[in-house]
Amino acid sequence: MNGAPDILTAGLKMIASLGVVLVMILALLYGLRRLTRQRMGTGGGKQIQVLESHYMGVKKTISLVHVPGKVLVVGVAGDRINLLDTLEEDDVLSRIASDAPPQSFGPILSQRLRQLGRGWKGKEDRQ
Asked: Transmembrane stretches, by residue range (predicted)?
């Protein structure tokens, strides 16, 4: 008979301890969530923006991505993203922001590829 009250008090202590542990875990999760929100919110907005994308084929696109100080031309294919070129931020943003009808980045890309092609031909001629 002496064992029954001991089991009851041990069970109550175990349930109370479990409750304390659960409350501590929830408090830690709340604190971590609040801390990460504060850190993420200090940017003042989106730092990375996709300016424009052009579909090239099945799961293949070329995109203009604006990051602070640069505009990147990236190729996206399946599970890969490749950096194709880096453009001057001022040139691209001024073209996008101008009052003229919006120009797709296709002509900009073809012009840039022609420039790159001329650079490669020049390297071959020197050898």
From this structure: 12-32
Total length of the chain:
127
Tell me the whole-structure pTM to 2 decimals: 0.43
Extents of the domains making up the chain: 1-44, 49-126
Return d(Cα 52, Cα 96) in angstroms, integer.
10
Q: Which residue has the higher pLDDT, 67 or 3?
A: 67
CA 31 to chain centre: 24
**Which residue from 79, 77, 37, 38 is spatially nearest to 58, judged by alpha carbons?**
77
pLDDT at 97: 67
Cα distance from N-terminal residue to C-terminal residue, the chain: 100
